[in-house]
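Lab notebook: predicted structure, single chain.

Context: the supervisor wants predicted structures on file for every construct in the current expression panel, including those that have not yet been purified. This is the next one on the list. No modifications to the sequence; it matches the entry in the shared construct table.
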Amino acid sequence: MKTGRLVAKTAAGAALAAGAGAVAYPLLFRRRCLNWGATAEEVAAKLPGDELLPEPDITSTRAITIDAAPDAVWPWLAQMGSGRGGAYTYDWIENLFGLNMHSAEAILPQFQDIKVGDELPLGPKRPMMRVEVCDPGRALTVRVADGNWVWIFALAERDGRTRLISRNRIATPDASVPVRLVGMLVMEPGSLIMERKMLLGIKRRAERLARETPR
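Prediction complete. Output recorded below exactly as produced.
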């Protein structure tokens, strides 16, 4: 009997906590989650490729300052992808989903000649990301095959350093209300964890490259 009451109380407490989180996240944390590291100006700024998905259901704009010029940052972006340079995030998590991501610690020359129209793999038997904007040292924009996800990387040089901005524009036209809620409460914080690691990973690699490159 006591065990049953304990289980009931635990379930009620979990439900209450979930309900509180569902209320608190959009009110208190969502903006910070979606705009980690970005200034208000960067969030509002128009980036190359925004027009590819003009009315997204979800937009995130995250950014980081890198103590290196854009030419030390760009090569790490150019080689991203499954079977290429990876994603510089938690490879073990990526590979739980069979994405074959192995984050490179060196510049891979064979993947540097990136251009508009190239297709970057998300993983084996996964959709391709097509390069839509390629402006070396300034912007790289890719779009998934069904058009419902656009990923923009923009680089801005500031006094010898680089602001790297990562923007995701996502449409969920067929998602039900429960699916959208799960996406907001679970997927958005999850994307922050992965993307923050990615930005920090690019920062570490680019700053090391800048130190090692003779001037």
